[in-house]
Design a protein that fits this description.
The protein is α/β, with parallel strands linked by helices. It is 34% helix and 20% strand. It has helices at residues 13-16, 30-33, 36-39, 42-47, 49-64, 70-81, 96-100, 159-167, 187-193, 220-232; strands at residues 6-11, 85-90, 105-107, 110-117, 123-125, 145-149, 171-175, 197-202, 214-217. The strands form two sheets. It has a six-stranded parallel sheet with strand order 3-2-1-7-8-9, with helices on both faces. Strands 5-4-6 form a three-stranded antiparallel sheet, covered by helices on one side. β2 (85-90), α7 and β3 form a beta-alpha-beta unit.
Length: 234
């Protein structure tokens, strides 16, 4: 295996599946039970805030009650032991990367354990349910507290940093994502344009499989630790 200097890792819901958190598009996934238009857009929040808050309150309870799995732990170990630069970009809103010990982490779709005021933009850590009558501690208005999650139609976070890291990486690893949602689904093309080696680790071929130079398919808790060992022993 070649030796690399700058790695970018992209993760998705498949990474947290074996920790007990549902993915979105698999059989029985979140979008099989809920309509995106009802729970994951600014228009849904304006139209029916109680239902939107309830949807995320349930997901927050779920995210609080689970533990990182062997794949999260292997990625934290890679970050700790890899001598070069490593940036982890996650589409996941759960705290499992952090709980496993990953430090240089970008939550491009936000974090379920944070709240955001739609009135003033203030953010704060938030473990409990959010209700519509919650008052924002910064602007003292109610009715605006929402999960700090990027909804469809909203701009993902820290995109400049992400594109900068992709533009100089020599290894791009995509883990547990179906490649359906942009801009994340376009990251492999950015990495290829930077002449990076591109690897997909996923249960099955993703929508973007043809863009990857290498692919290893299987459960994250099996393929990720094995791939990390190969990288660290090369
Ligand atoms: N190990 C590895 N991969 C898995 C596992 C597993 N145990 N279980 C499922 N997968 C794979 C599936 O094969 C699928 O390709 O994980 C992928 C999950 O895909 P999605 O459910 O589409 O989730 P993701 O790609 O993260 O969604 C992207 O879409 O709904 C929005 O904002 C939401 O961040 C999310 C974004």
């Amino acid at each position: 295996m070649a030796t690399y200097k700058r790695i970018v890792i992209l993760t998705g819901a498949g990474l947290s599946a074996e920790s007990g958190l549902s993915t979105f598009r698999d059989k029985g996934g979140i979008w099989a039970k809920h309509r995106i238009e009802d729970v994951a857009t600014p228009a849904a929040f304006a139209r029916d805030p109680e239902s939107v808050l309830e949807f995320y309150n349930t997901r927050r309870k779920g995210a609080r009650g689970v533990k990182p799995n062997a794949a999260h732990e292997a990625l934290a170990r890679l970050e700790a032991d890899f001598p070069g630069d490593l940036t982890t970009v996650t589409q996941n809103i759960d705290p499992l990367h952090e709980k496993a010990g990953t430090k240089n982490l970008i939550h491009m779709h936000g974090e379920i354990l944070k709240a955001l005021c739609a009135h003033c933009g203030a953010k704060k850590p938030w473990e409990e349910d959010i209700t519509i009558d919650q008052v924002c501690g910064a602007c003292n208005k109610d009715g605006g507290m929402r999960p700090d999650v990027v909804w469809f139609g909203e701009m993902p976070y820290r995109m400049e940093e992400i594109y900068a890291a992709l533009g100089r990486c020599d290894l791009f690893i995509s883990i547990g994502t179906s490649g359906n949602v942009y801009p994340a689904a376009g990251f492999v093309a950015e990495a290829r344009a930077a002449h990076a080696h591109t690897v997909e680790l996923n249960l099955e071929p993703s929508e973007g499989i043809s863009m990857f130079a290498e692919a290893i398919h299987g459960k994250a808790t099996q393929v990720v630790p094995a791939y990390v060992d190969r990288l660290l022993n090369s």
